């Protein structure tokens, strides 16, 4: 049975152009339309009923593309998704969560090539993200929660990781901490160039140098077990360590559990400050986690709103907004313990 891809090859056009002819979502020249229709007739291709039903109107479906492997969908990530989904529904759009991996470009091409989506909202954006080229080639509108390393003509919102890290490290320094560890995402995630992980590490190294702090930046798998093992190794190697900056929501509870298991108290012996952790996640730890975070639901809301405005025909300059973090000092940060001679 022939597919839409076969039609595209026969007609010498892109998969997305075939989908536009089938759905009527975008104008296609008469000459190109005729070639596609001739190819469909020759191949005896019949589009599926749903695609035929979309002819002449938009689907009002947006795909939120979130790679779920690596660090998975934690509570804070869910905040972005819910913020986007709730706002999309309020604007009469439907949000489809698509968990295909960043490197699965063929799956993304197939998704956007079916003609069933109006637009795409990207999350977990890498500094050099190959998905952006796929979306540009497909000529499908998209926006991002996160942003790549270079300049780009697209709408995006993101956490200001430089600001969050500075606020967190100044908080720890103000409490007398001089030796700090950054517990980042898993090595496999950092190595892919995930924007938040790379920017957090670079900001921590820069701020530590400015404040004269001793910093050990380490990657950690996104599990409590890994966090516990990591903090034990760090404390064995450096007994002067009194502060932890955590950009790893799943590992952070393990860091506290590991400290407790070796007879240390949080925050009396070890302070922990999280980066980009939602209030809900922070309040689930015991004691409640001190965190520097932006409003993840508002970022999700604005990200989908920017995309829908483009879908509704709004022109003008792209919106590119960084959200500053807010320090909420809770039960996991306190004065540094005196160093024993």
What does this structure look like?
With 341 residues, the chain is of the alpha/beta class. Among the domains are: 1-57, 434 Repressor (Amino-terminal Domain), CATH 1.10.260; 161-293, Rossmann fold (3-Layer(aba) Sandwich), CATH 3.40.50.2300. The chain contains 14 helices and twelve strands. The chain has helices at 4-11, 15-23, 30-43, 49-53, 75-90, 105-113, 130-138, 161-174, 187-191, 195-211, 224-237, 252-261, 279-283, 296-311; strands spanning 61-65, 94-98, 119-122, 142-145, 155-159, 179-184, 214-219, 243-246, 271-275, 290-293, 320-323, 326-328. A six-stranded parallel β-sheet has the order 2-1-3-4-5-11, with helices on one face. α7 links the parallel β3 (119-122) and β4 (142-145). α5 (75-90) packs parallel to α14 (296-311). The protein is elongated. The termini are far apart.
């Amino acid at each position: 049975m022939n597919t839409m891809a076969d039609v595209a090859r026969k007609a010498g056009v892109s998969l997305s152009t075939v989908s536009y002819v089938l759905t009527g979502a975008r104008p296609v020249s008469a000459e190109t339309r005729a070639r596609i229709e001739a190819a469909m007739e020759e191949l005896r291709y019949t589009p599926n009923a749903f695609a035929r039903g979309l002819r002449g109107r938009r689907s009002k479906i947006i795909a939120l593309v979130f790679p779920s492997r690596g660090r998975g969908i934690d509570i804070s990530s869910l905040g972005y998704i819910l913020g986007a989904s709730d706002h999309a529904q309020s604007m009469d759009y439907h949000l489809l969560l698509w968990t295909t991996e960043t490197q699965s470009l063929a799956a993304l091409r197939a998704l956007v090539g079916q003609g069933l989506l109006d637009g795409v909202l990207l999350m977990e954006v890498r500094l050099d993200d190959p998905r952006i080229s796929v979306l540009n080639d497909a000529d499908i509108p998209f926006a991002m929660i996160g942003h790549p390393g270079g300049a780009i003509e697209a709408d995006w919102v993101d956490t200001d990781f430089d600001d969050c890290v500075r606020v967190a490290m100044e908080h720890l320094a103000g409490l007398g901490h001089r030796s700090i560890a950054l517990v980042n995402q898993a090595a496999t995630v950092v190595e892919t160039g995930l924007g938040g992980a790379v920017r957090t590490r670079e900001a921590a190294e820069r701020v530590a140098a400015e404040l004269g702090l001793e910093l050990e930046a380490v990657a950690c798998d996104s599990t409590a077990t890994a966090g516990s093992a990591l903090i034990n190794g760090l404390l064995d190697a450096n007994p002067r360590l009194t502060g932890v900056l955590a950009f790893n929501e799943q590992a952070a509870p393990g860091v506290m559990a590991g400290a407790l298991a070796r007879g240390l108290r949080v925050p009396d012996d070890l302070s922990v400050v999280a980066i980009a952790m939602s209030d809900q996640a922070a309040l689930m730890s015991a004691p409640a986690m001190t965190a520097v975070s932006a409003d993840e639901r508002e970022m999700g809301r604005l990200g989908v709103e920017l995309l829908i405005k483009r879908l509704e025909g709004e022109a003008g300059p792209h919106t590119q907004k960084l959200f500053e973090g807010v320090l909420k000092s809770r039960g996991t940060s306190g004065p540094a313990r005196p160093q024993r001679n």
